[in-house]
Amino acid sequence: MKNNTTLKVSVKCGAQKKDFDVAYELKTATLTEIYTFTVEGELWDICSECAYLANKGKFSIVGFRKGHAPRSVIEHTYGKDVFVSDTEEVAVNEIYNALMESKTIDAEHLAMRPLLDVATLENGKVVFSLTVAYLPKDVEVIYTGLEIERVLPDVDGAVERQIAAARDRAGYWEVVDRPAQNGDQLNLDYSGSIDGVKFDGGTAEKQDLVLGSGSFIPGFEDQLIGVKAGESKDVVVTFPKDYGAKDLAGKEAVFACTVHTIKEKKLPDLDDDFAKDVSEFDTLEAYKADLRAKAEETEAKNAEVATSNRIIEALIKNNPIEFPEVLIEQRAQNMLKDMRQRMESQGIPFQMYLQYIGKTEADLIESYKSEAKEKETIRFIMNYIVEKENIQVTQADFDAAVEVRAAYAGKKVGEYRRSMKQDEADYILNTLMTDKVMKILSEKNKLV
Fold first, then answer.
1. Are 69 and 61 a contacting pair, CB within 8 Å?
2. What sign results for the dihedral spanned by CA atoms 242, 246, 250, 251?
3. Which domains does the chain have, with CATH numbers?
4. Low-confidence spans in the chain with pLDDT less than 50
5. Percentage, residues of the chain above pLDDT 70
6. Cα atoms found within 13 Å of the Cα of residue 390, Cβ hemisphere only
C-alpha cells in the first residue's frame, strides 16, 4: 500500500526559525511503514546552515580564530561539499523528530530504531527513507494452564555416564586378528577420487579411524566393517549437498583404502583398582558415592533448566506471533555480526571460514532467521508477562544478588559493587526478572 502526505517540520537555526510542509511517500506492509522524504531547496539551505554552525569549530583556517571562519572560506579551503554529509544528518534528525512529535509514528510499539536508507545525496538534495517496524498490538498471550512434561533429575544415568567416560579414558587399544567391528580403531591409507581424478584433501597414510565415530563422510565407516588387516577395499560415498567444499558437494567419490591394523578398545574392570587409578578414592564404592553426591546437585540444576526450556518451547508453540520481516532480518544480521566478531577475536579470518563451509553471508543470515524469530517471540512473551503480572525487581533483590556474586568472586560487597560495570548490572537485573517470570510460569502451568 502506498500513499502521499505531508509532515510539518519546524527548523530552528541560530536566530532564524522556519516551518515547512514536507511531502513524503508512505508505503505500508505488515507491521511496517516506510517513509520516503526528499529534502531540497529552502529546507536544504536551512539544514545546511545548521550543519555549518554546528561544525565550523572543527576547522582551522589561517587568519581566523578557530570556529570563526566564514562559511565561504571553509568551503573554498575544504571544498564546496564539506558540509553535505552533516546537512544530511541535520535533515534526517529534524524530520525524524517531527515524525515523533506529530505522533505519526507509534513510538510506544516500535520494535527497533527506524532504519535509515539514503538513496540520493548531493549538494542541495538528499532523498532518504525511514523504515519503521512495530511490535504486534492487542495480542493475547497464552501463558497459563498449559500442560508441560517436567524433566526429572537422572542421577543414576549421570553416575553411569561419568564412570563410562572414566573407563574409556583409562582404556587402551590392543591389536586383534579378526574382521573389523563397530567401535574398532583402524589404521589405514586412503586415496579419494572423483571420476578417476584425485582431489585435494582426499589422501592420507596411516590414518587412525574409530568405526562409528562419525569422523568421516556418512557411509564411509560402515563400509569398512568386516574388513581384515592387510586387505584393501574401495569405499564409495556421496558427499553431502551442503558439504563445506563446494567443488565436492553432492558428488560421488571412490576411496581406495588399505587397512594396516585393527585394534579393539580394552576397558579396565570396575573394581577398587580402577577407582584408585581414576580418582582420589581407595574403593569403587567411595568413588561412586562421591560421583552421586556431585551428580545430585548438578542434575537437579540441569533438570530445572531443561524444564524451563520446555516451558519456553510450549509458550512459543502456543503463541504463533508474527513480526515484521525487517525486524527479523535485522536481528539475523546482528547475529552474523556477533559471530564474525567472535571468530575474528580468536584469530580466524571470517571470509576464510565462509570459504571453508561453502556459504555466503547471505546464506548465514537466512539460516539465522528462524532462531531470530524464536528469540523475538520469547522476548515479546516475557515482556507481556512482566507487564501483565506487574513483576518488579526490588533493590533488595538486586543487593542480595550482588552479595552472592561478590562472595563467589572472593571480594567484599562494596569493592565488588565499585568495580561492577553497567553491562554486569544489566545482566543481574535481567537474570532476576527472568527468574521471577519463570517462577510464575511454573506456578501457573501444570508440570507433569
1. yes
2. negative
3. 2-133 (3.30.70.1050), 172-266 (3.10.50.40), 391-448 (no CATH)
4. 1
5. 99
6. 0
